[in-house]
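Consider the following assembly input.
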Amino acid sequence: MAEKSARKSNDVLLHDHNHDGIDRRGFLKCMAWAGTGAFCVIQGGVLNSYSLSKLAEVGSMETRGELSFVQISDSHMGFDKAANPDVVSTLKAAIDKINALPQPPAFILHTGDITHLSKPAEFDTAEQLLKSASAKDVFYVPGEHDVLNDEGKQYLDRFGKGSKGAGWYSFENKGVHFIGLVNVMNLKAGGLGNLGQEQLEWLEKDLKHLSKSTPVVVFAHIPLWSVYPEWGWGTDDSAQALSYLKRFGSVTVLNGHIHQTMQKVEGNITFHTAASTAFPQPKPGSAPSPGPMKVPEEQLRSLLGVTDVNYVRGHHALAVTDSSLG
Amino acid sequence: MMRTTLYTCTGLFALALVIVAGMTILKRSVAAAESKPVSMTEIKIDNFSFTPASITIPAGTEVHWKNNDDIPHNVVSNDHTIKSKVLDTGDDFAYTFSQPGTYDYFCSIHPKMTARIIVH
């Protein structure tokens, strides 16, 4: 019952604050699952999602595919305040959840804010912990907390091999085209997330050679849709990026930053945000600021999570399932 | 004879102490006069905002920003000529505005946080 009303209230908010210039003819639906993580299954290029805590209720056909991967986000290594003074153990719990999946995921996407203060020791801890995950490849994009004080130099030294510009790149896996974008650099006063002209030009070129039937998964830290611009939860030039993706049959956009799971389907594009492995943030507009939500200890892990994505060729579905750590 | 020498030594030592102490106090007050700004003012960072969001100050005022949030912020002028390091919870940044003008600034980590300082 509580879950139902949470979805409803977010529907209202999202309708109020959409300024992302996307075609409205398509089916639009917004869901927010407070208290769960996300499990994603890609089936033939369309993304379906299930609450990971309700994974047992979902048939195995829906959750199996040719490709499955996990998204984690906002680990904030180094954060030590309420409601989570131990972000290491909650990242470990996320990794345990990944390692308990019936089939090891092909890889892990980390959608940024790996660290809290961009300190070398914080990066070291995250990398060290992720070595114990069943999936060995981790693909990162930076969050604003990963590029503090040095314009992202340290992030690039660690994770930027083979990337362009501030760290954007693309790769293919099982016929799915993955694109990691950076929208946390050169932020303008009063503005939102920012991709910048150089990256947009690169994106247009990167997509040009693909056939429209290629499933595309875009991942970036700050949401590429207007979740709540008043709190900076959106990206100023995302509409241009999304316009390049309109010709594709199936596009999935995975983001972090807002420390809660939300979904929206709009035309050919499905948007998801993942929970944080570190601390929850309030629902849009429900608090004076987007600062960390202080919750009782016993509730904390139900508000943190991992996202698992599974792709099945030919079924035209991409399923995302959120999993809470509790 | 021995006793007289001892008294003299003690007296000299005491005098030396007084001189050293006096010089230290003098030095301190000179240093304070040199670095003391015209005035000081504090801007608080709470709930992802700068308070007050707009202030008018005389030239030479030293402005302190203190971050009371659980999330790090920074202070960057829109033209990027003034830029603090990232301020974690409880950290402080100070800048003395010696030139009159309008200084718009923001948090480059959370750019929705904007504020203004007018110096005359």
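The mean pLDDT of chain A is 82. Ask yourself how this observation constrains the way the partners meet.
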